[in-house]
């Protein structure tokens, strides 16, 4: 398996190179530049031009791209024009918040989706199945930003059950106090994102269970007099959960890359909020770094899903 993993990683190299070119060129096609916001009635145009020339903005795009790639291999993602900090420092301050929020959302999603999917698949066609289907219609059809705004309004502002912004309380001191405060700030956005992300898992698990119930090994177990509870726990549920486990790699990377809306609504200082801020301020260095990071994360998410599936199911080997 290690040889296959190394081969897959090597195949990713030209994909990452193509991705980096596309990301860099598209970022350069954005209107304006990071120095446009500094222009005022008393600003000397020559000073702005000197800043642009010092930043290399007058060089051809391929020259700028080459300098960016060389710096990238040295661990230098450039300088944030608006935050006046290295991009690696800016991303380092934000990525941890997004990762923890994404993990909490994934835990909530599985905690809700797996029992509902099992119930729906086992009792397909029943009232419980129809009730879960209605729940799925709501979670799939409702716009995420509307749910986030309503949750923030009722649970944050009206009931005051949860904080409405930030990651840690100012007066939290010590490891346990800071950890509990961080969890408290993540609970509402993580729970809402997790519940809204249950649709695909419920439907996929339901379909897998319904399909597994008609397999020959299930009929054989039933004909031997195996109790129904054991048939489901040892055969149907176990085999139906294998694709769900493999799908975790895609879900983790998808949550990290798709955190823009929830972080913006809840004023949560993560990668998604930083991405919106960088776009509005035309901070090219931050935009290209975030998009490139998200693209690489998606490639490794695909590899991670294949690895998980090969580990949980010995019959499968990644090729």
Automatic annotation (TrEMBL):
Pfam families: BPD_transp_1, BPD_transp_1_N. PROSITE patterns: ABC_TM1. Residues 95-305 form the ABC transmembrane type-1 domain. Its main location: membrane. It is found in: Cell membrane. The keyword Metal-binding does not apply. Keywords: Cell membrane, Membrane, Transmembrane, Transmembrane helix, Transport. The keyword Transmembrane helix applies. NCBIfam families: Opp4B (NF045472). This is ABC transporter permease. It comes from Periweissella fabalis.
